[in-house]
Amino acid sequence: MKTVFLTSGTRGAGKSTYCSKIIKNNSEISLISRDEILIELFGQTELDSYGDGHYYAYEIMWERVNKQLKSVGVNGKDFQMILDCWNGFPEERQRIVRKLREAGADRVVIWVFTTPLETIIRWFDEKNRNKDEDREFERKINKSRSRHDYELFNELAANIKKDGFDEVVYINPLL
User: Which of 82, 91, 128, 136 has its CA at 20 to 30 Å from residue 111's CA atom?
Assistant: First the structure.
């Protein structure tokens, strides 16, 4: 059986960190990360929203997903992959499920990250504090942006069970 675990959660919820820990302890699980592809291609994850970098990384991501799912033969051994990519809108999640099934996934599980907002804000503060102590205004903007992202994600994920997944798993990485 070919199982794909799709991560879903607000920016800064700890999805990539959680995936890294899973991979570190389970070397048989494959990981494809959109952020890692962006870093590989452009050296960063924050790109000009008017450029085509995100679309190019998305194409590369799907090439890798298809290659891995198609290369796994029916050898009696289960195959597991984690797909760590942006999927905040229901239409995106539904499209991802459809494309994964077309590529050969038998089972698609979504991991919904339920990290508390206060923790996300604290993580961003800690991450940015080391960069420049005089950037209080930027920290306030990041706090506001984190709150907005968190509220929007939770609104858009309210009916996530209807997006076509075989299983929905809620994960609080703090527990």
Answer: 128
